[in-house]
Each structure stands twice: as C-alpha cells, then as structure tokens.
Design brief:
alpha+beta; Alpha-Beta Plaits; 4-stranded antiparallel beta sheet; 814 residues; 7% strand; 5-stranded antiparallel beta sheet; 60% helix; single chain
Length: 814
C-alpha cells in the first residue's frame, strides 16, 4: 500500500552499453519492464538512425507473417490465442533460422497459391467448355433441321468459315456474363445489320477465382457469313470480355470432345484434391509455429526501435542511453545489463550512471489486479504530479461507499455482487476473451470496483431495510400498537404513533420495517437521507483538505500550511462542519420520552433555518416553552464562528502574496537535489506580483464559492437514493401487484409468471444497469470535483516502461 500512497521515487540514469551486447541487454530490460527510455536523437530523422535497416527487416517479416495469417484465415485455421511458453527475443542464430523459415514458408504458400490459381483457372475453362459443348447440342440440332450441315462431315468451326464461298454459315461459340448478354446481342445486331443469328442458354452459377463470389454466365453461338463479319464479331466478344471456345459442328465430334473434356476434368479434380490436402498439411504445420514467430519478431522490432533512441559516442564503440528507473528497481536494471553482457561474452561490462536533474520525472504507481481499476479512475481525471498524494488509495473505500449510499438495496446489490464475483473468480479465463468489445473491456477492467460496489450496496440496503422495495422483518418492530378497538373506528384518515407511548426501545440495526407501512415514510426518509448526505459530504471534503497537508509537508511548502490549509479548514469547519455537527447534536438532544419540555421533538429547531439566521444575523421567535437555540451560549459561539470564517477570506486572499513579497530575493537554504521538494521550492520566484495576486484571488473566490456549491452537490446522495427506492417501489406496485389481483387462481398463477419475467427484465435494465450507471457517474463526479479538487493537481505524465508484456497485451487489445 505504500506504493499507492504516493508515486514511486524515480531516477534519471545514463547507461553505457557495448554494441555487441546492446541487443541482448535491451532484450533483458524489455523482459524486466521497468525502464522508460528517452529519445536522445530527437533531431534525427527515423530513416537516418543506426538501426533503421534492422527495423525495416522486421517490417518485412511482419508483412510475411500477415500474409501467412491471411492464408490461414482463408482456410479457416484458427491460431492459438494463448501461448503457454512465451518465447524470448531471438538471438543472432535464431534470427537467421527465423528468417529462413519465414522465407521458405512464404515462397511455398505463394507457389501453392499460384499453382492452385492456375489449376482452378484450367478447371474453370474446361468446365465452361464442357457446358458450351453440352448446351450447344440443341443449337446444332436446329441447324441440321435447316439443312445447314446436311453432310455431317468432320468440319471444325474454322473450316466451316473457310467454306463460306460455297454458301455455308460460320459460327463462333463462347461464354459471357449474364448481365452483358442483352447489350452484347444488340451490339451484334448493329454491326451486322441483323445478319447474325444468335442462340444462347443460361449456365449454372460458378465461383469467381478473384473475388470468391458466385457469377452467372450464359453460353452463346453466333451464326454468320463472311470473313469481315467474323472479325467484327471477335472484336465485340473481346470488348465484352466473352470467352470463346472451339466447338465442332459435327455431332460425333462434339460427343468425342465432351468425353475428352470430362476425362481431363476428373484428372484435374484429383490434382486439385491432392493440392488442397498438401496446402492443409503445410498450413497446419505453420499454424503451430506462427504465434511464436509473431512474438519473436515483435520483440525483435521493439528492441531495434529502442536502440534507435540511443546515442553513439564519438569513438563509435559505445551506445549511450538515458532512461527513467524506479529507485526500487535499480538493482533489477543493473542485473539485466550484466546478464546481457554475459550472454555474448563481452569483456567490457555495461554500467549505469545516475544523473542529477531538475526535470520532473514520470509518475509511477505500482498496482495489482485489485488496485488497478481504482487507479484507472484517478488517471482518467489526470495523472498525478510526481510524488503527489495519490487519491486512489482512499477511493478504494470512499467510491463504493458513496455509490452504495445512492444505490442501497439488498436485492440490486446482490445482483451486482454476483456479477462482480463471477468476473473476479473466472478472471483468468475471461481475460482471454477476444472480441468482447469496448463495453465488455470496461466492465471487466472494473470487476473489483463492481464487486465492492455490490458489497457496500448490500450493507446500505440493510441500513435502509430495502430489498427490492420491500422491508425485511428480521428483528421485529419496536413500535407497539396501543390503540383500542374504539380508537380504530374513529373517523380519522390515519392514526399517529407517539414515540413516547408506542415504542419499546431502539431498533437494533438499520431502519424499522414498520416505516414501510407509514404514510409519512417519504417525509421521514427525506429528512434522514438529506442530513446523512450533508454529513458525508462535509466529512469527505474535510478529508480532502487534510490530504493537502501531506503534499505541503512532503514538498516543504511550509507557507501553504498557514496561508492555505489553516484558513480553508477554518472556513469549512466553522460553517458547514458546524451545521453537520448540529444535525448530529439534534439527534441526541431531543427525545420524545424526556420530561423536559424544551428537549421534546416539538421544540427542536430547524438546523437549516438556524444556519440561515447565523449567516444573516437573524432570529426566530420560538414556540411557548421552547428555546430558539439548542444550548446556552450558542448565539455567541455562532457569531464567533461567522467572524472567524469571514476573516479567513482576506486571509486566503492577501496573506500569501504579502509573504512572498517580503521573502522574495532572500537566500534559500541549499537542498539536496535528490529531495523531491527541491523541484517545488521557489516556484513563484520569477512570477510577477500582479500574476500572483490574480492567481490567489481566483483561488480564493473558487474555494469560497465551491465550498457552498460542493456541499450542496452532495445532496445528490439523498436525491438518487430516494429516487432509486421510489422507482423500485413503483415498479413492484405497478407490475407484481397486478398478478395478485386476479380472482381465478389459475389465471393469477400464469399472470404471476409472465409479470415476474417483465418485472425482472425492467429491474435488470432500469434499476440495476441504468440506475447503477447513473449512481456510478455521480460518484465519479463527487470524487473528481468535490474531493480531489481540494488537494490533487493531476499535472504529471505517466511512466511508460519498455516492457514486452505490455507491448504484447496492447497488440492483443488492438
């Protein structure tokens, strides 16, 4: 938890690495994941750096891997998502083997793909030829009827055209896409002036080799006469991308040709089957090694990209790098450098040197699976300044508690608890889920937040005695009905229970279930929850102000303790803290069973009216036998509080600028540069006094106004809690009560099942999800604005170490 209290102390280090051990040393640092490198070649183009050739080499390997993955997806082969043994970055010998494997695999897949395209292209052509021969049988039967081929000689299409001088017709047979046939037919009619006789028939759909989509084609035979018309027809066919095939006019030759084509098709099918089997075996073997190759290439590329951030000394014999290192991980970095040098047997070891700097280091809060979600909530507002107090530690308790104040319901909290527990128990399995979407990633990332919100909601649900808008009678009721039968028939709309005569002590835990039946239930809960909201709000803000002292002391801003912290605390405590105290004091002082008239509930003054009179110096006439104030000397005490609170305003406005004006130019005590406070001392030295006055005025006005508005903002705890309870009660009353209103037991039983399903759906959709999201957002606002604004700057930048684990996890998320 010490790491959560404040970000870890960072050191700026300079490392000197020999070129022969640079690759292995950076690889070890990537495995450790505790170093953030700085770019020492900021003015150098990426294409002019030392290891740009190696980076391009890795880019080429990644291109080959992407091509192989594409081919695997085409065949429906799924790669392993989780690798049990994650490989390390390849050493020089493994790099050569990896390059050879990738080169061989790509060439083999390319060759198989090209052969498959050629084979399937031949198969498609033969299939179309077979369809042309089979479908043109009817065409030539008509021609024979017309005595166009009375001799039945073995004359091919070309010979038929050559004999046109003897009055015989020539023909061209082919295949064209079905959507082009009508335009094709019109074009033939135009170029021949109607002297072309065209016959056609639709073919079965076939798959396009280029796109994989089904295409529809039509076979045609065009009969004509004349060599010139033949050339025109061929040009039209070429323009419409029609495929022309040889087709004999003789029936016997067509049958013989069809037989030969079918034989060739059977042979091609066998070859294609063997090709597919060989491709499947090759890709199956590749799929086992591809995830390992991918990780190795990514690590190798990351290493060379990081080495490009290094600078080369003038002798070209040493690589120099600068990096931020957490102080606690300094020994890990030194060990990684030593291991990298030992792996290549370097005679000159690499070493690390700490650099003194006034540059603000990055912020690093070491987290685990439980605390990561809460830290993300804080980082979403702004990264903490270096060594600034971290609100995430306290948010672990305050966030689910304030959420539960608005969402308090045992039933709804149990649903949220079960959902969070399911994600936490099965987190290893669920973390491997891919394609869940952004919404799922958000829910899973905040699984422990949801778990705690459910637990706290169950607790506040017991406090409110609320279970799906119904009360639980666990301890019985302390209210006793002392009315007689004659009292019950009096013409009164309701009977009032006086706590003096109708109670038997205090309810053990939470709220008495009898309030569920009371007509003044909402009035009672309004007062109860509104006062709790103010008390929680003042306590939360006061805790935030006290948190600012941690920053002031740590950074040795001693003047801020007296000029900022003290007046801020006095202003909040003497006004709104006093109001919260009077609410609690009122609960203890006034009792229905007391014998003192002025201490009875009827004499209890309104805390709000009393606070307004305090601010306006006004008075209210009390009831007979009662007192305006709660205790003796309260009026004088209130006046003192008000005067001190008013004095705090010029205190905050003028004290600090006057102090800076007096102390400006005085020599400062020397401080160690390792001290975090050295970076914060003297931050106003060069700032003009006019700007200091303006800044302090804005700060003062903002604090005074925000104290009022922030206190009122915590009333959302009361408003959302009441709205959630009333919405739950309305949903129950408007739905489930319908099923109990049927006179027939059979119909009522069926209706209960149907209505319960509807009630469960709206409970999950509205009361759990929508109301839960609303309460979550309001709780987030209370922390970001009302709480963290009292002490949190959030002006830092995050520590992003060079880590293979983080690199691979980000790649998986993308």
């Amino acid at each position: 938890m010490g790491d959560m209290f404040r970000s870890e102390q960072m050191l700026l280090c300079q490392m000197f690495i020999q070129p022969e051990s640079a690759y292995n040393s950076v690889s070890e640092l990537g495995e450790a994941g505790c170093v953030q490198f700085r770019d020492l070649n900021d003015g150098v183009s990426l294409y002019q750096r030392k290891f740009v050739t190696e980076v391009r080499r890795c880019d080429e390997w990644e291109r080959k891997i992407r091509y192989i993955e594409t081919e695997l997806k085409k065949d429906g082969i799924v790669l392993k998502e989780i690798i049990d043994d994650i490989p390390r970055a390849p050493n020089p010998r493994e790099i050569i083997d990896l390059e050879a494997h990738l080169e061989k695999t790509e060439n083999e897949i390319l060759e198989m793909a090209q052969n498959e395209v050629n084979l399937r292209s031949n198969f498609l052509e033969l299939t179309e030829l077979r369809q042309v021969l089979e479908n043109t049988e009817a065409f030539f039967d008509d021609q024979e009827v017309l005595n166009l081929d009375a001799s039945r000689k073995s004359i091919t299409g070309e010979d038929f055209i050559a004999n046109q001088n003897r009055g015989r017709l020539a023909f061209v047979a082919g295949v064209i896409k079905r959507e082009r046939i009508y335009s094709f037919e019109r074009m033939l009619w135009r170029i021949s002036r109607g002297n072309v006789f065209l016959k056609r028939a639709d073919l079965e759909p076939t798959k396009d080799l280029a796109t994989g989509h089904m295409i529809h084609k039509t076979v045609f035979v065009a009969f004509f006469q004349g060599e010139e018309l033949k050339n025109r027809i061929k040009k039209v066919c070429a323009g419409f991308h029609a495929s022309m095939y040889p087709c004999p006019s003789s029936h016997n030759e067509r049958m013989e040709m069809i037989k030969g084509v079918r034989t060739r098709l059977e042979d091609l099918k066998l070859v294609l089957s063997q090709t597919d089997d060989h491709r499947a075996r090759v890709l199956a073997t590749v799929s086992k090694n591809l995830p390992t190759w991918t990780i190795m290439v990514k690590k190798m590329k990351a290493i060379y990209y990081t080495l490009n951030l290094f600078n080369v000394d003038v002798t070209q014999k040493c690589l120099i790098g600068e990096c931020w290192v957490p102080t606690n991980d300094l020994t890990i970095v030194q060990k990684a450098l030593a291991d990298g040098s030992a792996q290549v047997g370097s005679s000159i070891p690499s070493f690390l040197n700490v650099i003194k700097t006034n540059e603000p280091p990055p912020t690093y809060n070491r987290t685990n699976r439980f605390t990561q979600g809460f830290q993300n909530l804080i980082d979403a507002y702004g990264i903490a300044s270096y060594r600034e107090a971290n609100p995430a530690l306290y948010t672990i308790i305050t966030f689910p508690f304030l959420f539960a104040v608005m969402f308090g319901d045992v039933g709804h909290g149990s649903i949220m608890l079960l959902f969070g527990a399911w994600m936490c128990i099965w987190e290893k399995k669920l973390s491997r889920t891919r394609g869940g979407g952004e919404v799922w990633n958000i829910f899973f990332g905040g699984r422990y937040i949801i778990l705690l919100m459910g637990m706290f909601s169950i607790y506040t649900g017991f406090i409110y005695n609320d279970l799906f808008s119904k009360s639980m009678n666990i301890f019985g009721s302390v209210w006793v009905n002392n009315f007689t039968s004659s009292d019950m028939i009096l013409p009164y709309p309701s009977l009032q229970f006086n706590p003096t005569n109708f109670t038997e002590g205090v309810y053990p835990f939470g709220m008495d279930p009898i309030w569920q039946l009371a007509e003044n239930k909402i009035i009672f809960q309004n007062s109860y929850k509104m006062k709790l909201s103010i008390i929680f709000g003042v306590t939360h803000m006061l805790f935030g102000i006290f948190m600012s002292t941690i920053n002031h002391v740590h950074f040795r801003k001693w003047s801020n303790l007296f000029f900022d912290f003290v007046p801020q605390v006095l202003f909040l405590v003497l006004l709104f803290g006093y109001m919260a105290f009077m609410m609690i004091f009122k609960w203890f002082k006034y009792d229905a069973k007391t014998l003192i008239q002025e201490n009875t509930p009827g004499c209890a003054p309104s805390v709000l009216i009393m606070f307004i009179n305090m601010m306006l110096l006004g008075h209210n006439k009390p009831l007979p036998g009662c007192k305006e104030l709660m205790f003796e000397g309260q009026g004088l005490l209130q006046n003192v509080f008000l005067v001190v609170a008013v004095i705090c305003i010029p205190w905050m406005l003028l004290a600090k600028p006057i102090y800076l004006m007096i102390t400006r130019g005085k020599p400062r005590v020397h401080r160690d540069e390792d001290d975090d406070s050295s970076m914060m001392v003297g931050e106003h030295e060069d700032e003009p006094m006019s700007e200091i006055l303006i800044h302090q005025a804005i700060h003062t006005i903002e604090y005074v106004l925000s104290t009022i508005s922030h206190t009122a903002s915590y009333l959302r705890l009361w408003a959302l809690s009441l709205a959630h309870a009333q919405l739950s009660e309305v949903l129950w009353g408007q739905l489930l009560n319908i099923g109990f209103g049927f006179s027939s037991p059979v119909i009522g039983s069926i209706a209960i099942w149907v209505i319960f399903a509807i009630w469960a759906f709206f409970t999950m959709a509205i009361l759990v999800m929508m109301e839960g999201l609303s309460a979550f957002l309001h709780t987030l606002r209370l922390h970001w604005v009302e709480f963290m604004s009292k002490f949190y700057g959030g002006l830092g930048y995050i520590f992003t170490p060079f880590s293979f684990e983080k690199l691979l996890s980000e790649e998986e998320e993308d």
